[in-house]
Amino acid sequence: MIHYQLSVQYPTSQFLEVSISFQVSAPGKISLKLPIWRAGRYQEANYAKFIRDFAVKDFSGEEVPFMKVSKAIWQFEASKEGEYSVKYQFFAGQMDAGSSWIDDEQVYLNLVNCCMEVNGIAPTECQVQTRFPYPVKVTTLDSINSNQFRASSFQQLADSTILATKQIMHSKFEVNSIKFHCWFKGDIYFNKYEFLESLQKVAEKLINDFGMFPEEEYHFIFQLLPYTHYHGVEHRRGTVITYGPAESLKNPKNFHELMGISSHELYHAWNVCRIRPKALLPYDFSVENYTESGWILEGITSYMGDLYLLKSGFWSLSEFLDKLQRTVQRVSEDFGWRHQSILESSFDTWVDGYQKSIPDRRQNIYSNGALIALAMDIHLLNDGLSLSEFMQIAWKRFGSKMRGYQEYSFWREAEKVSRKFDFMGFYSRYISGKESIIEHLKEILPILGIKLEEDFQNDYLRNNLGVLLEGASVKKIHPDSFAYQVLMLGDEIKNVSPKGELEVHRINGNSYSYKIKESSTQFFPEYKFQIEQGTPQREKWMQ
């Protein structure tokens, strides 16, 4: 067994004291590996930058020399059998759903940030002992007592959270004997009972459609913050959601946003936590885990998270389409689909998947992926099935057995259930290919009795010249416009004449006057949904 002791002496210092002790049965090299990334964010996090005072001692208390063999791997030679201990400090000073934070009110830890994996001994159970100034209120580890916890392996340990705090509000509900706990850290400015009832209905609908829930107990941990924040991270036994400012949740729009991220993260209990590509099963936190399936993990979940707010009755069709309109609008103003397939963009999350990239380099696996998922759903509904039913098939084939899928094996299942739907043609155009999914949605949405319309608001710069502004500065230029040939991002537009004459100040200090040639094409439409007469496919879609 590997023993982890986590303690906090001075909460305001934000340092966590970590001690790891373990038995070595034979002399040899021992490696301590700190994860370089975490599940749910496929990009390096470099947690090693938060480590200081690393030291190793043997069973007699003597210090053992060690060396770093990479930025996040410490190694030492165990000359004799016996117990060894490793100690270090971890700075817990980042508050978001996937990080760790200590202050004068709480100790909140994502254990993947701060716990090292021990290599060089036989795989074994992990035991965690806590010494915190506040009682542990919630953890997704198995409890031994109020301060001791257990994980069957490092994989479970790294997928777990601990929250110790002076005060927290706790509510719960049950669905099919599954206990769902909701923990609220911070001030609640919304109707908690309405929220719990709505969340329970989402859980009921999901469990009904999948036929089961993967765990016996699940924890929603809400960090309701006094400053602007929005983030969620999935774990097998729960999720952490950070949202702020908490007071903004008085606004129904923000309350709906909190419901949206909660539904999204709950869907991950199946898709990601269980239904997972082979490249991520098990996670290897010491290196990048590349996969082309990122859009399945996040795009399908983004679409399904919103769809289940509709299916559970929390959203009306109009409210669902309002959210979808914002996604379509965002995707329509980016042209990454011309330059990278959604598969390439999934692979490249490790490059720049969570930051602003160079113009039109890649697709957004969340937004573009959600629209691809919607298109698939429409085609499957037209075939008498649905994407919800297909994901139940994926659950039975892969998730329930924790059997990772290959890209081709996942889609082979879709091909099996398709009758009229030319899935491979769709795949080659919109998944491995580089065609606009919005244009395709315009063609197929009438199957649901919904029309996607383009509207031009007579905005001369936007619609006629293909230029989007942020304030007075150019933030986007349509690649098919003449303006793309002469303007730069960041140019400050000083004056615009009705004939397309622009006075521009550039960041390099130069000023220019341009006569922009108008195109017969209008650019950057505003997209709107029109609800028309219902169809059998729409009725099944919303059930």
UniProtKB/TrEMBL annotation:
Origin species: Algoriphagus marincola
Domain Peptidase M61 catalytic: 258-372
Gene3D superfamilies to which the protein is assigned, alphabetical: 2.60.40.3650, Neutral Protease Domain 2 (1.10.390.10)
Record domain Peptidase M61 N-terminal: where: 3-164
Protein name: M61 family peptidase
Family annotation (InterPro entries): Peptidase_M4/M1_CTD_sf, Peptidase_M61, Peptidase_M61_catalytic, Peptidase_M61_N
Pfam families per the UniProt record, alphabetical: Peptidase_M61 (PF05299), Peptidase_M61_N (PF17899)
Signal peptide region: none
Lineage: Bacteria, Pseudomonadati, Bacteroidota, Cytophagia, Cytophagales
